[in-house]
Amino acid sequence: MTDRTTGSSTRAPATPTARRESSSADLAHSREYSARLAALGRFTVRHKALTIGAWLGAAIVLAVLFPQLETVVRQQSVDLIPRDAPSLQTVERMSAAFGEQGSKTLLFVAMEDPAGLTPAARQRYDRLVQQLRADTEHVLLVQDLLADPVTKTQAVSADGRSWYLPVGVAGTLGDPAAAESVESVRDLTAEVFADSSTTAQVTGPPATFSDMIAAAEHDLLLISIATAAMIALILLIVYRSMFTALLPLLVIGLSLAVGRGVLSALGEMGMPVSQFTVAFMTAILLGAGTDYTVFLISRYHEQRRAQVPAEQAIIHATASIGRVILASAATVALAFLAMVFARLSVFAALGPACAIAVLFGFLATVTLLPPVLALAAKRGIGEPKSDRTRRYWNSVAVAVVRRPVPLLIVSLVILLALSAVAATIKISYDDRKGQPATTASNQGYQLLDRHFRKDAVITEFLVVENPTDMRTGKGLADLDEMASRVSQVPGVTTVSGVTRPTGERLDQAQLAWQNGQIGDKMAGAVADGNARRDDLTKLTDGADQLAGGLAQLDTSVRTALAPLAGILTQAQSAGTQVNQFRPLLQQLSATAPAVDQAIQSGPGIRPLADQADHAITMLDPLVGALNTSPWCATTPQCAQIRDQVHILTTLRNNGFFTQIADLGDRYNPARNATVADTLATVQNAVTSLEDAFGALGNPADLAANLRRLQDGISQLASGAQALATGVRTLADSNIEMLSGMNQIATQLQNSARAAQDSDSASGFYLPATAFENRQFTDVAKQFLSPDGKTARFMIETSYDPYSVDAMNLAHRITTTAENARPNTSLAQATVSVAGFPAVNSDIQRFLWADFAQLALATTVIVGIILVLLLRAVLAPIYLLGTVLLNYLASIGFGVLVFQWILGHEIAWPVPLLAFIILVAVGADYNMLLVSRLREESGSNIRVGVLRTVANTGAVITSAGLIFAVSMFGLMVGSVAIMVQAGLIIGFGLLLDTFLVRTLTVPAIATLLREASWWPHLASRKRQPTT
Fold first, then answer.
1. Which residues are paired to 795 by β-bridges?
2. pLDDT of residue 862 exceeding 70
3. Residue 758 forms beta bridges with which residues?
4. Are the beta carbons of 132 and 142 closer than 8 angstroms?
C-alpha cells in the first residue's frame, strides 16, 4: 500500500498518474477503507457551498430560535443530588412533621460587629427579620433565634460579637429558584446593613452551590479563550502554517456553535444541563473535535505527499481515517451516554452533553472539514510541510523494536509507581473548598468559624418516626435511652432532645436523681429518728411510769373510795330519813355512832381526791396523743382506754373530786368531836347536808359514778400497762426500722452518685403529665412533633460537618440508634439522620454506585468496540489494561500534586470524570495506533511497529497534546472540580501519549507479535499471499 511507505525518500520510477492509480487500487482493497465514508466525502467536496451553508444556517437558526446556553442553564439547572435521596427525604418528612416549611433549603445570615450586639445593631437585625418575612416569594421561614432567651444563647457567640439568623428559602439545593432566593436574601441583607459597623454575610449550602455555579460561569469565557489560544499555538507549531492551524479551530468553532444551539434546544425541552456541563462540553469538543480534524488532516497530508490530487486525497482521508474516527467517536460518545444512568446529576447531566459534543465534532470532521480543505487546496493553501519529527519517531520505533523488554519494564515501573500513590487518595465532599476563599459564602463560613464551633450552623438531626404517640412515660424513657446510647458514640459531644433540651438529661426525670432524692430524704429521716432516740427512751419510760402510776392510782382510789362509798350510802339513807322524818330529829342520837365514824374518816378524803385529780391531770398529754393517734383509732384496746380516760377527765373538769374533798372537810373531828356536842346545831347541819346533797346531786348517781370511776381507773391501769408494752415494742421496731432505712438510704445515695453525670446509666421516668406543664411543652415542641409521632435529636459533634469523619459518624449514629429500638416501644420506628453529613454520605454512596456502574459500562463499551474494530481479543485486552493502568497513574499524579504537595483532597466528581474521559480517549488513541499497526504489519509485526510508530507518532502526539491542552485549560478557572479534573485528565493524556502509546503498547505488541491478533491469527495465516 502506498501509505505504508509514506515519507520515505525512495524514488519511484512510476509516473504520478501511475502512482495515483496504484494508490486508488490499494485503497479500494484496504480493510480500513469505508466506501460509505468515501461517498460522503465525495458529496461534501462536490457540494462545498451547500455543506458549509448548511452548517452556517444551522448555527444561525439555532442562535435565533433558542436562548444562549448560559441562560438555559440558569433556568434549567439540575439538583445536586436526587430528590429521593434518603437524607433529603428525611428533611422533607421532618419539615412536614414539625411544620417548618422552608427548613429544607436553609441559608444563614452571619453577622459580626466589634462592638457586639448593640441596640443599633439589634435594630438593624429586627428590620432585616421584618423585611425577610415580607419577601414571601423567596423566603419561607425566618427563625428569629434572638427573640427567645433560650435560643438566643445558641445564636450569639460566646464573645458576644457575632450572631446569625437562619432563613429558609424557596427551591432546592442547586436549582434556579434557590439561586434566585440566595440573591434576594443577599440584596436585602446588604441594604439593611449598609453604612453600619456590622459585617453581614449570607452563607449556607445553597449559597455555597450558588457561588460555585457563578464562579464556573464567570470562568467559562476565560477557559474557552485560553484553551483555544493554546490549541492554536500547538497547531501552529505542528503545521507551521497559520491557515492550516486555523482550519481545525474554524471547523470546531462552527461545530461548537451548532452543538451549543442543539444543547440549548434540548435544555429548553427539559434535558438537564448545568454550568459544569457547559464547561466540560466545551473542553471535550475543543479537544476531541480538534483531534479528529488533526487525524483527517494528517491522513490528507500523507496522500498529498504521495502526489494524490487534493480532492481525491480528501476523499481518501475521509474514507480511511474516517472509519477509525467513527470508532473513536462512538467509543467516547457511548461512554458519555452511559452516564445518563448515573444517580448523581453532575454526571447524568454531563454525559449526554459531552456525547453531543463528540457527535458534532465527528460530523464536523467528516462533513465540514473536507469542503473547507478542498476550497483551501484550490488556492494552494493547507499543503503539507516537511515532517521534521520523522527522524525522532523513527529512532523511537527502532528502540522499541530492539529493546522491548527494558522499555516495557521502565514504562510499567513509572505507571505502577504512580498507581501506588493513587491508593492514598482522600476524597473531599466539602464544596466550600471547591471554590475561592473570597466568595461570599466562604467569607460567611469564615466569619462563623471565628466565633462558633464548626457544626454550630450546619445542624445534624437524628430523626425517629414512630407509628404511635411517643408522649408516654415508656416512650420518653425509650427515647432517652436511645439518646443516651448515641451520646456515647465517639465523636458525639452533645445530644439535645425532648428528654434533654440543653444536652443534659433532665435531673428530675432520672431514676438516679430520684433515687438520690429518696435516699437523701430517708437518710434525713433516719438522722432525725436517731436524734430522737432519747425521746423514744423517754416515751418508753413515760409509758412505764404512766402504767405504774395508774396502777398505784387504782389502788389508792379503791382504798380511798371504799369508806366514801359507805358514807355516801349512809348519807343517802340519812338524807331520805331527814326529808321524810324531819320532825323526828331526836332519832339522830341513834345514828350518832355511824355519824361519828363518818366524821372520823372525813379528813382523809381531800388528799385522796387531790391525788386522783393530780393523776388525771398527768393524763392530759396522753389524751391528746391518743386522740390524734391513727394507731389508736385502729386498735380496740387503745380506743377503750382513750374513752375511759376521757370519762375521768370529764369528772375532774366538772369538779367531782373537789366536791368530794369539800364534803370530807365538813366532817372535821377537830371541831365536832361527837354528835351529841353538835345536837343543838343539828338543824343547821341537816340544812348544810341538804345543801351538800344539792351540790353533789343525787347520792345514788354519785355512788354509781364512783363505781364507774373505780372501774375506769382499773381499766385505765390495765390499758396503760398494755400501752407501755406496745410503746416499748414500737420503739424497738422503730429503732430496727431506722437501721434498715439507713442501709437503703446509703445504697440509693451510692447508686445516685455512681450514675451522676453519666449517660451510661439507664433509668429514666418522665410522666406523660409533664406535657401539661407549659414551660416544658414550649421546649418539647422543638424536639417532638405535635402528634407525638416524630421525635428529633440535635447532634453536636467534634468533626467538621463536611468531613469524611462526619459522614462516617452519621453512619455510626444511625447504627447505634437502630440497635436501641428492639424490645422497646420504638421497635417499629424508623431512624434516619438529617443534615449535611447525611447529604454527603448519600453523595458518597451514589458516587461509588455510579462509579461501579459507569466504570464497568465504559470498560465494556470500549472493549466491544476494540474487538469489533480489530477483530481480535488479545490486543483489546492489553489495550484496555494499559488504559486502566494509565488512569490509575493519572489519579496518582493528581494525589501527589494536590494532596501530598498542596494539601488539598481530591474533589469527589473528579475520579469518575477522569475515568470516563481517560479510558474512552486513551482507547481512542490506542485504537488509532493499533488499527494502523494492523494495517502496516502484514506478515511481520516488527516491521508494522516500526512503520506505525514512525508514521503516527507525530499525529497522535499532536492529538494528545491538543486534548491535554483543552483539559489544562480548565485549570484557568477557580473551581476545584475543574482545576483538578483539568490537571489529572491533561496529565493522563500526556502520559498516554508519550509513555503508553509510545513505549508500553508498542513494546507489548512487539513481544506478542502476531499473537496480538488472536483468534483472527489462524485465519490470517491460512489466507494465500498475493
1. 460, 495
2. yes
3. none
4. yes
82, three cell numbers: 436526587
Residue 770: helix, strand or coil by DSSP? helix
CA–CA dist 800, 458 (Å, integer): 9
pLDDT digits (tens, 9 = 90+) for 381-435: 888 887 778 888 889 889 999 999 999 999 999 999 999 999 999 999 998 888 8
What is the distance between the alpha carbons of residues 845 and 851, in angstroms, rounded to a whole number?
10
Q: What is the pLDDT of residue 964?
A: 93
Q: pTM here?
A: 0.73
CA distance 908 to 575: 127
The three state secondary structure string of 22-43 is: HHHHHHHCCCCCCHHHHHHHHH
Give 9's contacts (C-beta < 8 A, 6+ positions apart). Answer: none
Mean pLDDT along residues 532-553:
66
Q: Give the contacts of 634 (CB within 8 A, at least 6 positions apart).
A: none
| Kind plus residue range of the DSSP H or E element containing 583 | none
Residue ranges in 423-472 assigned as alpha helix (H): 440-451
**Distance separating the N- and C-terminal Cα atoms of the chain:** 13
Q: How far is CA 616 from CA 195, 636, 709, 724, in A?
A: 95, 22, 11, 17
SS3 at position 143: coil
The pLDDT of residue 996: 92
d(CA 697, CA 839): 104
Instruction: Determine the Cα–Cα distance for residues 542 and 527; give it in Å rounded to an integer.
Output: 23
Which SS3 state, helix, strand or coil, does residue 840 take? helix
Q: Which pLDDT score is estimated for 451?
A: 93
Considering the chain, what percentage of its residues have pLDDT values greater than 90?
37
Q: Which residues contact 430 (CB under 8 A, 6 or more apart)?
A: 800, 802, 803, 905
Strand order through the sheet with 199-203? 139-142, 162-169, 106-112, 199-203
Task: Provide the CB-side half-sphere exposure for 959 (13 A, CA).
Answer: 28
Contact (Cβ atoms closer than 8 angstroms) between residue 232 and residue 294 = no
85: left (phi over 0), alpha (psi -120 to 50) or beta: beta
- For residue 496, the SS3 value is strand
Task: Report CA-CA distances (Å) from 489 to 506, 838, 840.
Answer: 20, 16, 20
HEC letters along 180-215: HHHHHHHHHHHHHCCCCCCEEEEECHHHHHHHHHHH
The single residue listed with the C-alpha cell 446529576 is 345
How far is 830 from 470, CA to CA, in rounded Å?
A: 13
Rounded-to-integer distance, Cα 132 and Cα 169, Å: 10
* Cα gap 381→241, rounded to integer Å: 9
Q: Report the SS3 class of residue 497.
A: strand
CA angle (865 as vertex; 859, 871 as ends), nearest 5: 125
Among positive and negative, which fits the CA dihedral 928, 988, 961, 250? positive
HSE (CB half, 13 Å, CA atoms) of 190? Answer: 7
Q: What is the DSSP letter of 77?
A: B
Q: 16: which 3 cell numbers? A: 504520478
Q: What is the largest CA-CA distance in the chain?
A: 203
Residue 774 neighbours by CB under 8 Å, 6+ apart: none
Which neighbouring-strand residues pair with 862?
A: none
Q: Give CA–CA dist 293/4, Å, rounded.
A: 21
Integer Cα distance of 718 and 548 in angstroms: 10
- How many whole angstroms separate alpha carbon 291 and alpha carbon 361? 9
Asked which of 12-16, 47-51, 90-94, 995-999 is least confident by mean pLDDT, the reply is 12-16
CB 83 within 8 A of CB 172: yes
Residue 735 CB partners (closer than 8 Å, separation 6+):
533, 536
Which set of grid coordinates corresponds to residue 86?
434518603
Nearest Cα neighbor of 663 from 631, 637, 685 is 685
Residue-wise pLDDT for 651-681, tens only, equals: 667 675 576 566 556 555 555 444 445 444 4
Q: Is the peptide bond before 166 cis (omega within 30 degrees of 0)?
A: no
φ, ψ for residue 671 (rounded to 5)? -100, -30
